[in-house]
Amino acid sequence: MEKLVSLCKRRGFMFQSSEIYGGINGFWDYGPLGVELKRNIKDAWWHDMITAHDELDVRPGAPSTYEMTGLDCTIIMHPQVWKVSGHQDLFSDMMVDCKESKGRYRYDQLRGRWVEAKGQKVFVTTKVEAEEEDEDLQRRALKFFNLRAKNVEELSWDGDTVSLETISEFENVLAPEAKSVGSLTEPREFNLMFKTIVGAMGTEADTAFLRPETAQGIFVNFKNVVDSTRVKIPFGIAQVGKSFRNEITPRNFTFRSREFEQMEIEFFCHPDSSRKWYEYWRDRRMQWYKDLGLAGERLQLRDHAPDELSHYSTGTADIEYAFPFLPEGEYGELEGIAHRGDFDLRSHMEGKLDPNTCPLEVEKGEDGKPKYRGSGKDLTYRDPETNEKYLPHVIEPSAGADRATLAFLCEAYQEDEQPDDKGKMQTRVVMKLHPRIAPVKAAVFPLVKKEGMPEIAKDVYRALKAKFPAVYDEKGAVGRRYRRQDEAGTPYCITIDGDTLTDKTVTIRDRDSLEQWRVKLDDVVEEIAGRVS
Ligand code: GAP
Fold first, then answer.
1. Which of 236, 250, 303, 356 could form a disulfide with 267 if both were Cys (CB 3.0 to 4.6 A apart)?
2. Which residues, in sequence order, are bridge partners of residue 336?
3. What phi, psi does 221 have (nearest 5°)?
4. DSSP tally for the chain: helices H, then strands E
5. Average pLDDT of span 253-262
6. Hey, what's the torsion of the CAs at 151, 153, 158, 164, to 10 degrees?
7. How far is the CA of 399 from the centre of ligand 1 (A)?
8. What is the pLDDT of residues 354-369, one digit of tens each?
């Protein structure tokens, strides 16, 4: 992971936000290569799910034909949206505070291990990433017991490293940045929504929130979309956009950020066919990642066990990836596909529902009235053919654009041995990104800067550039130019050499197989276009 992080910075995939001021935790910027990569991933998603969707044919695995449409709604919405959706009351993580260091940590993310020395037993905790855990625990234990490294055998460890959640009393817990034990508070809830103020008055009544998910914008526009277009159920509304969560401990590069982008679909269908649609979307979304290169065993589909499901849902699955920063055997969520029943549309119609009631009921306040009122608008759907009126069920495939980008980067990073210009074997770092998402599709090199080669190369470059991102490079030995492009993930390099001047052909080199073949100058654009689309 360290190598990937350093490559991302060195080659301009990703930078820490506001880095020249020391950075800001949980916020990341995409550099010149990163912005193209992430844009290509979002474009591929939008193209494959929405614009290229053929609503006239039944797709393999789908119960029937369906329509897809898009939306782009605001980040700040009416505050009632978040009351009714449950985010104001329930969108929280448990946290613990350290009274000594004033640090705040996510309860489920702090890990530690029991250790005994000098007649005292302490649960030492750490907040570092999995691979550095053991080292950090030992360093902290030595410091706490005032021992030197050479006396490490005086530490007697008991059991494995476990979550703080397994510890019932904190009096012998050494917090991650504390010098003495017993400084952690009891766990309490921390709402993850970012607050902001709308307007100049600045009163409590002007408080609004940055959306923590794009989904609610789709639900509150359901009626607008149905009334303004000719879409008929079953259909999906898709949205790509920023979401914000004030994560207590953002970490693992961009995996848990405070500002990130989501790619969400809310798919509206008849309750009777909703289970089949859920299965369709779960499999369709899994295949999408595979088609773009996450084909290995690091990708998995995990169906939630029945006891993990809300009672109004008949299925939820996560598409997960074994990110290299996670402990061996652990996977991180890339996308969740959830059967949400009619929970969301009903909430926005009637008021916040109590998710623990079965059948679902509107949650009441102390006065016996709905705790948070819904819009009161009729969000039911009337089938134009059967005249049946019903509240549609929702299937929600909800993906993170940043997590997808990170997974594609992790999967792409490879090292191999290749000869340099002098035939000496060297380690080559290569980003084997799928050509569709690679930031740059082709690089054009004149072999030497004379004999008219640069002129021909520039013409080829301009012809390519008119169609897709390409680069022109005439600096340094050709082997070094290849290496630069391999690190950037450029799938094809085109070299103009002596033969070009006589037979009007160029060499194309494949980044992954290193195969080289000659193509007529006039056919280069078509050849590359056919391979990268
Ligand atoms: N509307 C449902 C929803 O938002 P979620 O599981 O909370 O569900 C969906 O989020 C996806 O958004 C996740 O699978 C992940 O890819 C992405 N995501 C969520 N929190 C994130 C964070 N803090 N940083 C980066 N991506 C995040």
1. 236
2. 318, 398
3. -105, 5
4. 14, 29
5. 96
6. 30
7. 7
8. 988 989 999 998 899 9
User: Cα–Cα distance between 443 and 465 in angstroms, integer?
Assistant: 10
pTM of the model: 0.91
Question: 12, exposed or middle or buried, with CB in 10 Å at 0-12, 13-18, 19+?
Answer: middle
- Cα 506 off chain centre by: 39
CB of 400 within 6 A of ligand 1: the answer is: yes
Identify whether the C-beta of residue 418 lies closer than 8 Å to the C-beta of residue 428. yes
186: buried, middle or exposed (CB in 10 Å: 19+, 13-18, 0-12)? exposed
Amino acid (1-letter code) at residue 456: I
Task: State the virtual CA torsion across 70, 71, 75, 76 in degrees, nearest 10.
Answer: -150
Q: Whose CA is nearest to atom 23 of ligand 1?
A: 256
Expressed in angstroms and rounded, the spacing between residue 371 Cα and the centre of ligand 1 is 27
8 Å CB contact between 348 and 379: yes
Q: What is the pLDDT of residue 243?
A: 98
pLDDT tier at 511 (50, 70, 90 boundaries)?
very high
Residue nearest to atom 18 of ligand 1 (CA): 400
Residue 497, ligand 1, Cβ within 6 A:
no
pLDDT recorded at residue 201: 85
64 close to 58: Cβ distance less than 8 angstroms: yes
Cα 156 to ligand 1 centroid, rounded to whole Å: 40
pLDDT number for residue 129: 83
Query: Can you read off the two tokens belonging to residue 107?
Result: 């309860």
Q: Whose CA is nearest to atom 4 of ligand 1?
A: 213
Backbone φ, ψ for residue 466 (5° rounding) = -65, -20
Beta carbon of 217 within 6 Å of any ligand 1 atom: no
Write phi, then psi, for 416 (nearest 5 degrees). -145, 180
pLDDT of 421 reads 75
Arithmetic mean of pLDDT, 132-155? 95
SS3 content of the chain, % helix, strand, coil (to 5): 30, 30, 40
Compute CA 428 distance to the chain's CA centroid, rounded to the nearest angstrom: 28
Q: Does residue 391 register a pLDDT over 90? A: yes
**Structure tokens belonging to residue 260:** 């990130």
396 Cα: distance to centroid of ligand 1 (angstroms) = 12
For the stretch 480-491, pLDDT in tens is 999 999 999 999
**Class of residue 493 by CB neighbours under 10 A (exposed 0-12, middle 13-18, buried 19+):** buried
Pocket test for ligand 1, best of 27, 92, 260, 409 (most atoms within 8 A of CB): 260
- Ligand 1: does its nearest atom lie under 6 Å from the Cβ of 398? yes
In DSSP notation, 207-230 reads EEEB-S-SHHHHHHTHHHHHHHS-
pLDDT at 426 exceeding the cut of 90? no
The answer, yes or no, to whether any atom of ligand 1 lies below 6 A from the CB of 340, is: no
Q: Which atom of ligand 1 is nearest to the CA of 215?
A: 1
Cβ(499)–Cβ(446) below 8 Å: no
| CA atoms of 316 and 396, how far apart (whole Å) | 9
